[in-house]
Design brief:
The complex is a heterodimer of chains A (291) and B (324). Chain A is an all-alpha fold. Chain A contains eleven helices and two strands, in the order ααααββααααααα. The mean pLDDT of chain A is 89. Chain B is mainly alpha-helical and 324 residues long. Chain B has 16 helices and two strands. Chain B has a two-stranded antiparallel sheet. The radius of gyration of chain B is 19 Å and the shape is globular. Classes of the chains: A mainly alpha (291), B mainly alpha (324).
Chain lengths: 291, 324
């Protein structure tokens, strides 16, 4: 019985972590789907979200979960502007240009954070930082559980916007066929900016959600950039819904692997799966790419 | 061939000019060694990344193989560092052959992602395979034999070794600029399908380019290991190093003979200068420069300069390319 409980415990913690991976991955996937641009800096934006929430907490005593209300719109605007200033002008350049451009934007962000906040790890302490919920013999970290439900709500909201609104339809049309979307009157340039804005907002949301449970340093994002790549490739680049599955699979696989195989190689399981999918099933585990 | 002759002369002039560095800046030798080593490794990166157009963000793996092979053979088995370096070079070339065979079916961003994954896995092995690699604590090279009475820990000696390697990589780049092999690579970069239609086997030439690139990067890694003498997986295998090599080559001018060298001089000197103002945040200049280059001079400093020179007398398109 004890083994079963610990197995459930491991899976639960994997699912909760996987939610964070999923939300960064969805942002990356949306950007790729609509723009055909791989954002190489999701982790840096995640770090920016963490520092934003940190600043709001230390200056205005704003709880990270409430800070979302401030950070989300600011993040969409920031992402939109980054797209207009840095990425839109090189839309017709060879594809490695956008990779290098986002790498450059990421370097600027992480180094500005380093300059502004220093390299020392910082964290916040809230009443619930170490609280847990118990369900039978299984314990849930309270902040991770809350984050998970916020993640689910955010994904459901994004899905509703993409499927039920005019903007969402226009965005999906841009992803499916840019020229045809242009022809029927979709402002695809706006859609690209908006997609980047939403993608960045999701990464910064993930950062905000992580702040209560994770120390923040300016380079915290590197790990999450890799995770986001793994998630999107598992799901198929541009497959937004698949990224949810990709995130959960990665979270659980890491959690199981770290517990039952080797904790030192925790990050390797995802990378191996990543390479295998990339080489043998490049469209992802869930079939054709779709936004 | 006349142009190739002039380029060869320029290579010799550049190497001769750099050879004066230790006399001119005897107090800034650390920077000098870093410049020649990164110029050499970025030129090696450029064989695949610039001439072949395959954006690798995993070259730290090859640098690490070169450094670790030399250091481990020296520490564990007492093998002389030059043999260790050659072993590392051979191992890296073999590794690149297998690696390329595996991932060259991928194109564009997918290829770049796969190189990151492979390099990250090597880093994890280096951290976790403690018995062999010393794990996360890293390795410390304490003593080395002295070939011909040269102290390998001496910065001047390291500088000239690095300069020698840079000279070799520049000769490789020069060879690419006029040889059939170089034209094949450029054809694959510009349009893989057309190159294939003309009878060039893209996978074969990409793998050969990768092996060449890997061999010289590993040699640079071995010298880098001597230079830092203490190294840890998270320094030598880090994705940051891979990105740095790519940015140096792109900012200078990818797929040109002197681009990576110019990039290394520019970026490492600027980074050194900025370290005084921004402490650890000195990579800020890399980010700013790559943004400016991609936006305004996608062919790098070299391409931007050529553009300005070409346009200057007519001056019909003002402000088209801020070169530097």
């Amino acid at each position: 019985m004890a083994e079963v409980t610990s197995l459930i415990q491991v899976v639960v913690s994997g699912v909760l972590t996987g939610g964070v991976y999923a939300i960064v991955g969805i942002g990356l996937s949306l950007i790729f789907g609509v723009m055909r641009v791989v954002n190489f800096a999701p982790g840096e934006f995640l770090a920016l979200g963490m520092y934003g929430a940190l600043l709001l907490f230390t200056r205005f005593h704003l709880d990270p979960y409430l800070a979302i209300v401030v950070i989300l719109p600011a993040a969409v605007l920031l992402g939109y502007m980054v797209e207009k200033v840095f990425i839109a002008p090189i839309a017709h350049a060879p594809e490695h240009s956008s990779i290098l451009m986002t790498v450059g934007v990421g370097l600027v962000i992480s180094n500005l954070l380093l300059f502004g906040f220093g390299a020392q790890p910082q964290s916040i302490y809230t009443a619930y930082s170490t609280s847990t919920l118990r369900l039978g013999a299984v314990t849930f970290s309270l902040p991770l559980t809350v984050s998970f439900f916020i993640t689910v709500a955010a994904i459901a909201g994004l899905y509703a916007v993409l499927t039920r609104t005019e903007v969402g339809r226009a965005m999906r049309a841009t992803a499916q066929n840019r020229d045809a979307a242009e022809l029927v009157g979709v402002d695809t340039a706006q859609m690209r900016g908006l997609a980047f804005g939403i993608g960045i907002a999701l990464a910064m949301l993930a950062g905000t959600l992580l702040l209560p449970v994770l120390y923040v340093i300016p380079t915290v994002g590197g790990v999450f950039t890799l995770k986001a790549f793994v998630v999107t490739v598992l799901a198929g680049m541009g497959n937004v819904l698949g990224a949810i599955g990709g995130g959960l699979i990665l979270g659980v696989a890491e959690s199981l692997g770290a517990t039952y195989v080797s904790s030192g190689y925790r990050d390797a399981f995802g990378l191996i799966a990543f390479l295998l999918v990339l080489l043998f099933k490049p469209a992802g585990l869930f079939g054709r790419s779709r936004v | 061939m006349e142009r190739a002759g002039r380029t060869l002369l320029a290579v010799l002039v550049v190497v001769a000019a750099l050879a004066l560095y230790p006399q001119l800046f005897p107090t800034r030798l650390n920077l000098g060694v870093a410049i020649v080593l990164f110029a050499a490794m970025a030129t090696a990166w450029d064989v695949l990344g610039g001439w072949g157009g395959q954006l690798s963000l995993g070259h730290a793996a090859l640098l690490g193989i070169g450094g670790y092979t030399m250091a481990l053979l020296s520490l564990r088995l007492g093998v002389a560092p030059w043999w260790g370096m050659l072993a590392g070079v051979a191992l890296a070339a073999l590794f690149a052959a297998g690696w390329g065979w595996l991932v060259f079916r991928l194109r564009g961003p997918y290829f770049a992602l796969s190189t990151i994954a492979v390099a990250e896995m090597l880093r994890l092995v280096a951290i976790n395979w403690k018995r062999v690699t010393g794990g996360a604590e890293g390795l410390f090279i304490k003593t080395l034999p002295q070939p011909l009475g040269l102290n390998l820990f001496d910065r001047t000696v390291e500088f000239y070794l690095g300069l020698g390697l840079l000279g070799l990589t520049l000769l490789v780049a020069w060879w690419l600029s006029w040889s059939r092999f170089g034209y094949y690579l450029q054809a694959i970069r510009e349009d893989q399908e057309s190159a294939q239609a003309m009878g060039v086997n893209p996978t074969r030439y990409k793998i050969l380019a990768f092996m060449l690139s890997a061999a010289f990067t590993a040699a640079g890694g071995a010298l880098f290991a001597l230079y830092v003498s203490f190294f840890e997986p998270h320094i030598i295998f880090d994705i940051g190093v891979s990105v740095e090599l790519a940015l140096i080559a792109y900012i200078g001018g990818a797929g040109t003979v002197f681009g990576p060298t110019i990039g290394a001089v520019l970026l490492l000197a600027a980074g050194d200068l900025f370290r005084n103002y921004f402490q650890q945040a000195n990579l800020l200049i890399y980010g700013i420069l790559i943004i400016l280059i991609v936006r305004f001079a996608p062919e790098g400093v070299v391409g931007g300069w050529a553009f300005v020179v070409r346009r200057w007398p007519r001056a019909r398109r003002p402000a088209a390319a801020p070169a530097e």
